[in-house]
Write a structure and sequence with these properties.
2 helices, 12 strands
């Protein structure tokens, strides 16, 4: 897609970067996995990042053209809006007070259309993300953990294969 141009608030761009930063690849072998895919349609920009092991999507409002572009994580300056342009060989971030120009990524972004399971889940459990992260931080040196679910209202037990286990209690989910 050439000559695609979108506008969004800098706060929405920062929200995309914050959500995606731990999901872009740090590996140079597949440069496209260092990109965030922006799929822009009907005023909604869906940002997707994946590193080959985990994936995230986040949706924010935007204005402008419809289409897909691939952007890196940059350090945005203070400002209110950013115009992101996908040109022939580069991506331009125009913050009105300054511009940042980066080369486009080479390669193909994996097709992730069917990555998330469809249909209704068997059951749902809610967790406070900070508490879940804190529990997982206790297993930082481990190469594999096991997560045991005992029901919608019971806590989960996280174990390594040797000597650690953690209990994380759920929070009540509210209907959407």
């Amino acid at each position: 897609m050439n000559n695609l141009k979108i506008t969004m608030s800098v706060s929405n761009l920062k929200e995309i970067f914050k959500a995606c930063k731990n999901y872009v690849s740090k590996d140079n072998h597949r440069p496209m996995l260092q990109a965030i895919k922006l799929n822009c349609t009907n005023g909604t920009c869906e940002a997707t990042a994946l590193d080959g092991f985990k994936m995230i999507t986040i949706c924010v409002p935007y204005e402008g053209d419809e289409g897909t572009m691939y952007i890196p994580i940059i350090k945005p300056p203070k400002g209110t809006n950013v115009i992101i342009s996908d040109l022939e060989s580069e991506i331009v971030f125009d913050f009105l007070t300054e511009k940042q120009v980066v080369k486009k990524f080479k390669g193909e972004f994996p097709n992730v259309e069917k990555a998330f399971p469809e249909g209704e889940p068997k059951f749902r459990i809610g967790f406070d993300p900070k508490l879940l992260k804190d529990a997982l931080d206790g297993f930082t040196g481990d190469t594999c953990i096991e997560v045991n679910f005992f029901g919608e209202t019971n806590g989960v037990i996280i174990k390594n294969r040797i000597n650690k286990q953690a209990l994380v209690l759920p929070v009540k989910l509210r209907n959407k």
